[in-house]
Amino acid sequence: MGDLSPSDHRTTSAQTSPIDSGRTLAQPRYSRRSLLFASAAAAVGGAAAVAVGGGITVAGRQISTAATTTGNIEQDEADSVGTATVPFYGTHQAGVSTPAQAQVALCAFDLRHGIDGIALGKLLRIVTDDIARITSGRPALGDTAPELAATPARLTVTVGFGPALFDKIGRPDARPSGFADLPAFPEIDRLEDRYGAADLLLQICADDPVTVAHTQRMLLKDTRAFASTRWVQRGFVRARGSGPVGSTPRNVMGQVDGTVNPADQSEFDQLVWHPGPGWFTGGTMMVLRRIRMDVNSWDALDRSAMETTVGRRLSNGAPLTGSDEHDEPDLRATDATGLLAIADFAHLRLARGEGPAPQILRRPNNYDDSPGADGDSDLGQLFCCYQASIASQFVPMQRRLAAGDLLNQWITPIGSAVFAIPPGCEPGGYIGDGLLG
Question: Based on the structure, what is the number of domains in the chain?
């Protein structure tokens, strides 16, 4: 959300209140009653809040590795959105720094018994060739509906490896340093095995849902003999051009979500891409958290209570101590009642931690599955983030949020997986060729 997932959203969906579900949170330091009191106080003292700082420069987009797309949508681009392409070959895989597309399918697979490094290399050669073709607007080999490939709509396909893959192919020595499954967060996690760890990931993103569906079908054909499908999770954000130029998308709880990301290319390179040495140089590590949102309970709050919980204004995503989304929050400021303007249980405060805000790259997506028999919505977020080190960037933030974030009463992680995203490749090579030779 403007601040929802493990990371100060200065950026990344839905669940059941622990009161209603029987879920036990780590003895929350604050109750809903204290929240309502704080929000009432905020209403009294809100006029005293003062905008501070120059603020972060990235809004609703990721930094592009070269000067590719900027996130600003020109009219001619809007008219030709279906034919727009994102280069496939390069130092880094596309789909990480690429400005977020409207649709995503996250497809995870487990290697079949007996698949070794040689067989995995064959699969990755096939997949790489098809991705290179489809992302450029050409059909994959054997495509029986080649007309569908003519609309790439900024299609990217990003390949990732799960922690167990390296053991299965006999290369535990090649597992990137520090890359491992996440530790448990028992205060908040209610993880379901159907959304758990997997060996291989294909992240398919485009601005057209038919393009995503067609690409998924082509690539599933490629993987069939080598791997079994573990899960597919579909998500979305607002289409480009559906809001003001450069605006940050909102999640299904109505919050501006994606405010804080690396502010410039130098910071991006340092925080996102693995520095090496070795075959993983130029890769990154991805965390995927499926977060259910209890929107019915959330909707029962008034706007002031919602803003106090998050630490940002619903109208434009500005911190409660500022007036613009990218104003730097003043965590020491108090309101007219003498209380902290940004409460110590607010998501923004806990996601940032003390001192300069630690950073990750956030690419959150919403999901909206079929309502249950009782008619309750099944809404949430596919929180995807990328960082050079999961252990030093993502985990500390998630621990703080798990321990004290009042927002935990309305959001529940139900799925969790991590993937090592290899560097890109050049023509004639394939994704993962540095690992498999």
Answer: 1
What pLDDT score was predicted for residue 353?
A: 75
Answer left, alpha or beta for residue 114, where phi above 0 means left and psi between -120 and 50 means alpha: left
Domain that holds residue 193: 18-436
Confidence band for 66, pLDDT divided at 50, 70 and 90: very low
d(CA 343, CA 157): 40
SS3 annotation, 205-268: EECCHHHHHHHHHHHHHHHCCCEEEEEEEEEECCCCCCCCCCCCCECCCCCECCCCCCCCHHHH
Question: Rounded to a whole number, what is the largest CA-CA distance in the chain?
Answer: 69
Q: What pLDDT is recorded for position 1?
A: 52
Find the helix or strand (DSSP H, E) in which 40 lies: helix 32-45
Question: What gap in Å lies between CA 284 and CA 386, rounded to an integer?
Answer: 6
| CA–CA gap between residue 40 and residue 166 (Å, rounded) | 53
pLDDT attached to residue 27: 42
Task: Say if 351 falls within a structural domain.
Answer: yes
Q: How far apart are CA 161 and CA 159, in angstroms?
A: 7
Instruction: With respect to residue 75, please indicate whether it lies within any of the assigned structural domains.
Output: yes
Q: What is the mean pLDDT of residues 77-82?
A: 65
**pTM (2 d.p.):** 0.83
Domain-embedded: residue 312: yes
Whose CA is closest to 235, among 377, 418, 383, 382? 382
The pLDDT value given to residue 261: 85
Helix (H) or strand (E) holding 293: strand 284-293
Distance of alpha carbon 418 from alpha carbon 4, whole angstroms: 19
Q: How far is CA 327 from CA 27, 196, 323, in A?
A: 32, 37, 7
Separation of alpha carbons 182 and 391, rounded Å: 8
Output 64 or 204, whichever has higher pLDDT. Answer: 204
Whether omega before 277 lies within 30 degrees of 0, making that bond cis, reads yes
Chain centroid to CA 228 = 24
Return the axis-axis angle of helices 117-135 and 209-223, rounded to nearest 10°: 150
- pLDDT at position 285: 98
Q: 């806990």: which residue's tokens? A: 350
Q: Which two tokens stand for residue 24?
A: 């036990």
Q: Average pLDDT, whole number, for the chain?
A: 84
Whether 5 maps to a domain, the answer reads: no
